[in-house]
């Protein structure tokens, strides 16, 4: 899961999206997003879908793409 979270952070940074902006786009709290990027918590699938959609990313988890 750590690799997926690193991909999301890299995608956010490449798109010059701040955590505050991502929070606004996804409706997720900034603190939650910070903890995800720091790999302190495991994300819910619904959160990954929101984040990937907001950043226009495709994230692969095993055989699943979101």
UniProtKB/TrEMBL annotation:
SUPFAM superfamilies, per the entry: lambda repressor-like DNA-binding domains (SSF47413)
InterPro entries (UniProt xref): Cro/C1-type_HTH, Lambda_DNA-bd_dom_sf
Pfam families tied to this protein: HTH_3 (PF01381)
Residue ranges of the TM segments: none
Stretches assigned to the HTH cro/C1-type domain: 8-64
Name this polypeptide is given: HTH cro/C1-type domain-containing protein
Source species: Cohnella kolymensis
């Amino acid at each position: 899961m750590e690799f997926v979270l690193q991909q999301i952070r890299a995608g956010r940074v490449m798109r010059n999206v701040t955590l505050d902006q991502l929070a606004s786009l996804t409706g997720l709290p900034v603190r939650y997003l910070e903890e995800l990027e720091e790999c302190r918590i495991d994300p819910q699938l619904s959160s990954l879908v929101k984040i990937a959609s907001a950043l226009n990313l495709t994230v692969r988890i095993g055989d699943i793409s979101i």
